[in-house]
Amino acid sequence: MSETSEQNLSLNPENSGKEVAIASQFQLTWWAFKRHKIAIIALWVIGIMYLLAIFAEFVAPDNPFKQNRRAVYHPPQMLHFIDTSEEGRHIRPYFWKMKRERDPETLAVTYVKSGEKIYLRLFGKGPEYKFWGLWNTNIKLFATEKPREKFFLFGADRMGRDMFSRVLYGTRISMSIGLVGVVISLVLGVTLGGISGYFGGRVDAVIQRLIEFVLSLPTIPIWLALAASLPPSWPIYKQYFVITLIVSLVGWTELGRVVRGRFLAMKNDDFVVAARLDGASESRIIFRHMLPSLTSHIIASLTLAIPLMILAETGLSFLGFGLTPPAISWGVLLKEAQNIISISQAPWLFIPGGFVVLAVLSFNFLGDGMRDAADPYGN
Asked: CA-CA distance, 54 to 172, in Å (whole number)?
C-alpha cells in the first residue's frame, strides 16, 4: 500500500498504520465511507424514511383513507413547541385550531385561525388500526388531547384526507418497490453476468446478445405498454408485484455487464487458478472466491439503481399506468394533484414530489460514497 493511501485511511486517530495493514476489505471500505460526510447524512435520511415506512400505521395520525367533508383542502397547520401562558413558557407541542368560513362575496371556502390551542401528546390514543396486520391498537406516536380534533401537518386533499398520513403510507410502497426491484435485478444480473464472464464462448455470446436486445428496447414505451395491459380489476398486491417486475426488466442489464467484465478479468487470477487446481467446483469458485471480491462494487451499483426504480414507479403511477387508487404511493398522490385547483389553491398536494426528490438525492449521494469507498486503496 502506498504512503498516501495509508495516510488517507488513517485520518481517524484510532486507525494506526498497523491496523490498516491487517484490516479486512470490509474495514477498509467502512473507514473510507466514513470520510464521505454527505453520504453519511444520506444514509441517516434513508434510514429514517424506511423507519417511517415500516411504522407508518403507528406514526400516521389518522386513517389515510378516511374522508372528511368538513376538511376539504384544509391547509397545513404549523406545529408549535413553546407554549407561552400566564404561568410562563413551557415545552408543550400544540397547534392553532382553524375554523371553516365562506367568503360572502365569492362563496369560496377559507380556513381561519380560531384562537383555540389544541395540544398534542406522545403515545396518545387515536383511531383504531391493525398494526402490521397482526393486532388491533389505537396508540399513536402523537395524538390530540381532544380525540375529535384533527391535526393536518401536510394539509388535506380534495376529499379531506390527511396528507401526512397518506405520504407516510405512500413512502412504504414507493421505497419498498425500489428494494424489491433491486433484489430481482441483483439475482438476474449476478447470475447471468457471472455465467457469461466465467464460461465465455457461446454462452457469453448468447447472454450478451440478450443484454443488447433488452437495452435496445425503448424503456418508457415498453413500460407503458406492459403497465397498460394490467387488468384494472386486479387487487393491489398483484398490481404491486407486476409493477415491480416491470421496472426490474431493464435494471439488471447494467449490473450484468459489470459482473461479466469483472469475472473476465478475475477468472485467470492466481487465487482462482489455485482454487481450480485444488479441485474446487465451479459453483464454489464463483460464490466463495470470485463474488465476495465484488461485494462492495455490487452494493454500490444497487444503491445507485434504487432511485431509478423509485422514479420508474412514480412516473408510471403519475401517468396512470402504474399503481391505481386505493393503492397509495408517491406517484398516485402526485397524480391526484395534477389539476388547476391544486396548483392555485392547494400547493401542499405536491409535497410527495419533495419526498421523491429527497429519496433520489439521498440514494445518489449514498451510492457515490459507497462507490468511492469500494476501492479504498485507490483513494
From this structure: 7
